User: Fold these one by one.
Assistant:
Number 1:
Amino acid sequence: MKTVIKQLTEAFGPSGYETEVTDLIKTIVEAHVDEVKTDVLGNLIAIKKGAQGGRKVMLAAHTDEIGLVVTFIDDQGFLRFASVGGVGLAPLVGNRVRFAGGAIGVIYQEKGAWKDLTMDKLYIDIGAETKEEAQKMVRVGEFGIFHREFTDLGNRLVAKGMDDRIGCVVAIEALKKIQNPKNTLYFVFTTQEEVGLRGAKTAAYGVDPDLGIALDVTLTGDTPEASRMEVSLGKGAAIKVKDSSLIVHPKVKDLLVELAGERKIPYQMEVLERGGTDAGAIHLTKVGVPSGAISIPTRYVHSPSEMVDVRDVQACVDLVIALADKDLTGIC
């Protein structure tokens, strides 16, 4: 599992430019599913057919990561940029960014007090000495991502892009183990989640599922003086109750809790005060879809060094496997 996590987190895939990630996932999953297809927005859809009379379950994990886009190049070759997705100021200063063409730069700030820092006071130094030299390396409109390597700390793993490549890993590991499921499973590796759940909206319309489950990261409350939240690393899968985009259907929440209890899968309940997942788009599809989320507890979300616990990841995999064979009569 760690090998796949390293491959996916180190891949290039800001919102709208996820092809490197989806191509990699396709090579991993195509031998384990009945059908693989890509839709117009780039969502990769891997289907495992279920028994007659089973339900259609959409399991969504997004492939995109937060990033930056170049907006201006000055005469000295420094780049100005805008955020792609929820990029905060604190993780930027002093960090490196990598562009699709391979150029790497350092993000730094103009002079001034930290309290007055805004995005327009930051720039990227790619080592160019003139605008012309810079333009040979990076063009206006080019997207970039944090440049950080995967690090294995034992049970704890650190990388950029855990949000939500780790959800993709949960889907991959589950689909590899599921054999002859009762329900037809649509593992959808979605695009452009970080900029408005866009891939999930169109994919859910096409799939038209009976049940929707997002596989995504969630915050934790287990670091020094963290916001109070009853989610910690190492305590199991997080079963969502609500977030900014979704109040989980009570039957879906109860189903996931029941399955975790039956299979002795460690779990914790997640109430996320801000943020959302693809389930926010799925549950509003057509006439509505009962939806929920299985979340991977993650520290330092939307930073270049997001941390997960491999035991929580395995618990999420086990919960997806349990759901695949569940009789969903009365749920959807």
Number 2:
Amino acid sequence: MNKYLIVRFSSFGDIAQAMPCAVIIRQQDPDADIHWLTRKDFYDFVKSLPCIDRVWGLERLHGIKGLISLISDLKKENYTHIYDAHSNLRSFIVCSVLRLNFLKVNIIRRSKNRLRRLLLFWFRKNYFPSPFRGAISYKNPLKKWFSKIDFPPPIELAVETAPLSLPQDFILSSAIVIAPSATWELKRWPLEYWSQLVSSSPGYNFILLAGKDDVECDKIAEDNKKNVLNLRGKLSWVQSAKIISLAKTIISGDTGVMHLADIMGKNTIALIGPTAFGHPTRATSKVIETKVYCRPCTKDGRGRCINAKYKKCLRDISPQMVTNQLKAMQK
């Protein structure tokens, strides 16, 4: 029996996009023992993927000592295959030590294509696939293990038992999930646009998903108290996944919420601005974007806007454009 280890520590969106890889491994090698190494705060989220047999959680606050201790435990597992889906220093250390321990282990790695990134962001020469679909980039390295692989059908997570506390009269199956925030401000659709979108759609009930620190998102709910349920900072990753799985449509920028909705096959509206690697994969996801000479200009939203009109690529996506797409999806 083959034993696989997938290494992806974070983030929520990247883990979501890498999840189909575990499904592919299970399809190609049904008797395999599949493990996943992630950050401790994503442990329950990864564990909700049914095809994963064991999850290893790295507590980042424990630093190098915690990493050494975890590697010591991993050395006992006799892995035959390791997929480094993170390609950072920690994953390199893990894979290097395990390679010394298991001389015949088959290790593959998802390249970050640093040279191509340099050419794109410094010299405006784009040699990446256009559009760049992150989930596909995670899948491609598996071709070194399996001769023929197809992208799997929508992923179902075991989140049905996750507790939710919603108003009794709230119908989740007809709700529209919105995710107004993002880790980096540069890739956030303007807050006032979100308010306009919701206020111009009184016939829909919206659920607002955001992190506990995204207090600016409260204004959307305050301006639209009748049709917005504000769950900012109230849900775990698993509870958020349950909300996404049950909702009718998801609207988001380049965020983990959007990428999870995409790989779950949900009706998704993706608002893509300056980021180079944020496009969804499935046909159920519809992208709204504008042609601006300077995009893409960032890998994940870090950096500064170089356009004379700040965030023009996102500001040119009007609330009416999103409303029209939302209405089209409800037919």
Number 3:
Amino acid sequence: MPFSSIGDLAQTFVTRRANTRLTSELSKLGTELTTGLKRDKGTALSGDLGILTALERSVTELAALSSAAKEAKVFADATEARLGRIQDLVQDLGTKAVLSQGGVGGNVESAVIAAAQDAFATTVSSMNATGAGRFLFSGTATGTAPLRDADAILADLASFVAGAPDAASFNAAVDAYFGPGGGFETTDYQGTAQDLAPQRISQDESVDLGLRADSALFRDTLAGIARIALLDGGAFVGAPAERQAIIDTAIGGLRGADNGLTRERSVVGSAQGLIDRAITRNASETTALDQTRISLIGADPYETATRIEQTQVQLESLYTLTARLSRLNLANFL
């Protein structure tokens, strides 16, 4: 009776090829079960990868926008916190200055001057704060602190106003120092004249967080605080009317700064709301895209687990057969 057979070497080759195929299939199925996605995307999509490419591009863009929105949130939250701190200082100093009006030249005035010096230092420190690893108020120079040390600023300002014959001249000198081309602009401010570019946070939205430390709002705030702080140097000692006139001007400046800070915090608050909504929307869109992606190339976990079990049975059967064949010997049957 005719029959066909293969030699030992060929049998080994066939066995190895079957082992490689089953092992590879088991590895592929394990990956699909772990990731939930088919490894052979081309087969799953019948060779049409265009829609998957477009989908993954959208997912990548959304991931970048989500990251940018979260960074913008940190930056905006830090900005709001610093503006709030500065406004608290302005309001507290303004209140103390008003209450001191009946005690110029006494202990009450000294307490107000000390409070102004502390407020100036803390305000400068707040303006030099960072958020998301960047300085908040330096314009495009986010790696550079916007202002010099508070003591250095006050020292230069004290020298600039020294010798003013009266309160009017003193106040004019302070205005000039913080005005265009003054010492604050040319020496104290170390950021750029360019605002920070608006931050894109979604497909069609951006937020502007470009407030700089050399803005009119911050100049007026520092000027109002500095007028009182500079009285510690003995300016107009023996001239209580002049000192009171300086404090009165400072009170007016602090009220204006308070109103300006309220408006700016409102702007930042609106930006925070926009960012929060963008973060939520980006997350929803990402979820929708992920679900669409899974519907195209997702691997059914039950089906995959069943195929793994079947492949394991086949592989074990192959191992069993290989072991049995290896023990066959003609001498055992003679």
Number 4:
Amino acid sequence: MDGPNKQVFYSARPEGHVAAECFSVSETSIADPADGDVVIANKYLSLDPYMRMAMLGQQGIENLNTVMGGRVVGTIAKSRHPNFNEGDTVFAMGRWEQYSCLPGTQVRHIDIGNVGWTPFLSHLGFTGLTAWAGLEHYSNLQAGETIFVSAASGAVGSVVGQIAKIKGLRAVGCAGSDAKVDYLLNELGFDAAFNYKTVDNIADEIGKHCPDGVDIDFENVGGKIFDAVFRNMNLKGRLLICGGISQYNLETPDYAVPNLLDFITKQLTMRGFTVRNHADEIETYVELARDWVAKGQLKGRETIVQGIANAPDAFIGLFHGDNFGKLIIQVDR
């Protein structure tokens, strides 16, 4: 194909907080697809916390001097795969670039009718699948139980709370601003929420909003928030470890697992998981989630940043809470 392709490269491993120096932006020509490949004109790119671990090779995804990887939605610009035609609307694990040339086997059709593009990077995509899969497979949830969600206004946490409500749970969460707490209570229907930055004691605040204790913790933050919720867990409680964004930029994590003796006395279960193990369930989840969206039971909020060259700064801001909901790049041409 003719034309330029702007790309964001991963050029230096971060030491501590990820910085602008870790990235570089350059331009090349659009690749021509080989047999079985397609070229996607990327329309939107998802920025996710897991990418920070990938930058250290902890998930075996990113190598230095390569284009950063990320989930994208867009249209087929050129196809040499029998299942795709020019103009098809698709989702893929692509890259931080304007055009991604990928094997057709790694690309999935999406129907953007009635919902638009960006939900497929948010509550109708792998973000939503992460929330659903954790609850569906590992929580052993029972109607009437209490779930606590850290980073509850974030992309994953907000979906966790909404699905929990659909399943009949009492949903309690924390967030990093009063505006985000208001969103949880008045738009998403959480039963209780608080700003963890303005309370004197996080553990006491969780206890205040969870007077009957916490049955399920859906952990996205780690650190002092995980330590605080741990103290409020009920007998035979379940802790689902999805993320630990408070620790990703630390050279040495500042919190270990709290008192292990509590695992004995409270008979707790703690389970880590990754959405990659549930990728084959995406269509099942999307069918469920579309129905919830149509009924007004599931919604998303997004922060959209314009321009692929602005992806590094937006990604850095993700770890400072600059975004509200799902962080997405609108790819320019």
